[in-house]
Amino acid sequence: MVLKRKISVVVPTFDRLATLREALASIRDVEGSGVQAEFEIVVGDNGLKEETQRLCLEYGAIYVPAHGRGASYARNAAMGAASGDFITFLDDDDVWLRGHIEPHLAYLDAHPDYDAVFGQAIYTDPELNPASAPWPEDPGSGDDLTRRMLSGLFPQIGTVVARRSVIDSIGHFDTRLIGGQDLDWLLRLATKNKLGFVPTPCILFRGRAPETYDALNRMRVRFDRQIFLRHGMPNALRLWKSPLDMIRAYHKTLFHFYRYFTNRAIWCAENGSAGDVIRELKVPALYLPLLLATEILQQSPLRTALLAAGRRWLKGGAGLPSRPPVGEAIDETAGPGPKAVGGPLAASEVSQTPEAKARALWSDVLTNGSMMTPTEAVLDELHRYSGIPLAEVDELVKTAASKTGLKWDARDRSTAQGLQEFYDRVDHWVYGTLGYHARQAEGKNVPLPVQVAAMLHARRPGTFLDFGAGVATAGLLFDRLGWQVTCADVSAPLLQFAKWRVKDRGLPIRVIDLHNERLPEDAFDIICAFNTMAHVRDTLQTFKDLRRALRPGGLLIFDVDTRAKDAEMPWHASKASLVLRVVRRLGFAAEPQLGELHIFKKIESNLLARGIVGAQDFLKNTDAAIWLRSQYWRRSRRT
Predict the structure, then answer these.
(1) Residue pair 298/612 in contact by the 8 Å Cβ criterion
(2) 195-206 and 37-45: which strand pairing?
(3) Is there a single domain that holds both residue 259 and residue 160?
(4) Beta strands in 130-226 (DSSP E)
């Protein structure tokens, strides 16, 4: 007979009976789904109402009054009454998913030196309709996890299972923090390398009602900054290579707040009064003043809106104070929302998010409607294209990377002509790239084109350029999504296969040979360059050409491969900062980054803006400046 372990579920609440009922029901549902554990639900209540006590009695939960403001008091009161071997959490407006708990217990059994483990959450709207794929996907471990948590990653407390000894190890939640107390608590674990991760969807994380975003973000930005300084400064020498890296992490921590309030300021400039604009810009001015000054001085949507509003206000049209619409929320513990489902949902029931749909379409593009797996379909397509037997095609796919590396070493790449000769003879890339796309479809990592497709799901399709298109799989994906697609490349074997592939499927996709043809001017709403910039020889001219081809207000989306060179990956490893400084100088405004993808919007640039950007880049990125910073940082480490 297997003895069940006891798990205490800590639930903080404050006068939200409807959502609390859903939360408690989901806990009991998970308990009854076969988990080898006994659940003890402990509700810490700030509201102190009899109705909450009666609801706890209905679900067999222990009721504990909490005398103090904020979730910290409620969680601490419940933790004090908990008697389980393990402690886990659920906010009163979130919902657990079946499949939670057991993977966490297995992880802690396998890692006895870890105090806690967290999993994935699925973000929803207030009605519990899924709005994201499970996140995070791969947060890293050790110091890497800590760095990511100090750069904007916020594990959801409802996905955490901890040993009871964690209370003695790191203590309770900090009652001085009205917001972010769960992030602070998890960072205490992470800095001690005691926090693990399992890629299991655990909860539906309810988004707040839109009208609550403004007050929440004004409160959260203050506490997130405090938490960054509390955990970042004492561990700076261990976590970051230079002061600049720490500053970048600070910017990432607060940038989503910055963008939220600058977007509201733009709306107020177009529809409200000067007082509205000043109110919205207070947060960016207080927490990221240099970034705000730069955005106002250089050509940007914010500058354009402020100048237009200033001219209107000087003419007497000062506008009326009004409440701007809310933007994208940064949630703390999720907010109130009406009951939307009859009971807890399994992870399989919430898979049709924009990212999940785009990923399913990625697989369908590879299989082309057949009943084959992506790998089988890719081998069959290469067989039909080349006439080579399937067994030999399979071998070519498996050995493509190493053979391409040998061709790279055999070529003289010191001149543009020698480099072009390599790209014109690298026929193994067709096999290797398609095989890679099939592995992406069958694996867990989300392909970059899928991430972009999910981001653009609400945008009306327009013109799309896949720059460095290779075998055109990304182009096929966006064609399926209704975009007018153009694919461009310089490699003769890749272009030949892309043209055959498009013709074989009867699609109206244009394929451009950049060796012989220029990109059309002001032609594209979106330009994407996936895994391409590492192969670009003339970065400045390339981005000039892309800017010329992009329509005003269009988006340029690309990644920079900065992996170290090895025998199978000897391409032009690029330094991201040098690439980005080129883009910024040409007249692009940075948008929020999407994972490893950089996003820039085309704007009109003036001489003053270019001068400011140039001076910033000189101070940040010249070899002399980098050397001086590294010497200072090394001396700081020694002392």
Answers:
(1) yes
(2) unpaired
(3) no
(4) 161-163, 195-206
Each residue's pLDDT tens digit, 207-218: 876 656 677 788
Q: What are phi and psi of 222, to 5 degrees?
A: -65, -45
Enumerate residues 6+ apart whose C-beta is below 8 A from 487: 465, 466, 469, 472, 475, 498, 502, 509, 510, 511, 512
Per the structure, the count of domains in the chain is 3
End-to-end CA distance of the chain: 58
Phi then psi dihedrals of residue 590, to 5 deg: -70, 135
Distance CA 315, CA 131 (A): 43
Query: Residue 172: its pLDDT value, please?
Result: 92
Asked if 498 contacts 471 with a C-beta cutoff of 8 angstroms, the reply is yes
Residues 6+ apart with CB under 8 A from 297: 303, 608, 609, 612
* Consecutive H or E run containing 502: helix 492-505
- Could you write out the three-class secondary structure of 97-140? CECCCHHHHHHHHHCCCCCEEEEEEEEECCCCCECCCCECCCCC
Q: What separation in angstroms does the CA of 600 have from each of 25, 268, 279, 471, 547?
A: 45, 23, 27, 25, 10
Give CA–CA dist 117/535, Å, rounded.
40
In this prediction the pTM is 0.58
What φ, ψ does residue 131 adopt, rounded to 5°?
-130, 10
Using the Cα atoms of residue 413, residue 418, residue 424 and residue 428 in order, give the sign of their dihedral: negative
Please check whether residue 219 lies inside any domain of the structure. Answer: no
CA distance 502 to 504: 5
d(CA 225, CA 409): 49
How would you classify the pairing of strands 597-602 and 588-594? antiparallel
Is 545 buried (19+), middle (13-18) or exposed (0-12) by CB count in 10 A? middle
Residue 121 to residues 206, 298, 408, Cα–Cα distance (Å): 10, 38, 43
**Is residue 248 domain-shared with residue 372, that is, in the same domain?**
no
Strand 116-124, strand 195-206: pairing: parallel
**pLDDT recorded at residue 211:** 58
CB 447 within 8 A of CB 440: yes
Residues 457 and 477 sit within 8 Å (Cβ to Cβ): no
Q: How many CB atoms lie within 10 A of CB 208?
A: 22
Neighbours of 546 (CB within 10 A): 24
Convert the pLDDT of each residue in 79-106 to its tens digit: 999 999 999 999 999 999 999 999 999 9
Q: Are residues 256 and 289 in the same domain?
A: yes
Beta-ladder partners of 594: 597
Q: Is residue 340 part of a domain?
A: no
The 3-state DSSP class for residue 288 equals coil
Find where tokens 């000894």 sit.
Answer: 165
Residue 637 located in a structural domain: no
Domain co-membership, 161 together with 285? no
Residue for token digits 């003890």? 40
- Give the Cα separation of 528 and 478 in Å (integer): 11
For residue 185, give the 3-state DSSP assignment: helix
What is the domain range of residue 155? 5-208
Radius of gyration from C-alpha coordinates of the chain: 27
Which residue ranges of the chain lie beneath pLDDT 50? 1, 318-323, 326-351, 566-573
Residues 446 and 498 in one domain: yes
Take residue 154 and report the two structure tokens written for it: 């916020």
473 Cβ contact list (under 8 Å, min separation 6): 362, 365, 366, 433, 434, 437, 449
Cβ contact 240:252 at 8 Å:
no
CB 284 within 8 A of CB 259: no
User: 474 and 528 in contact (C-beta within 8 Å)?
Assistant: yes
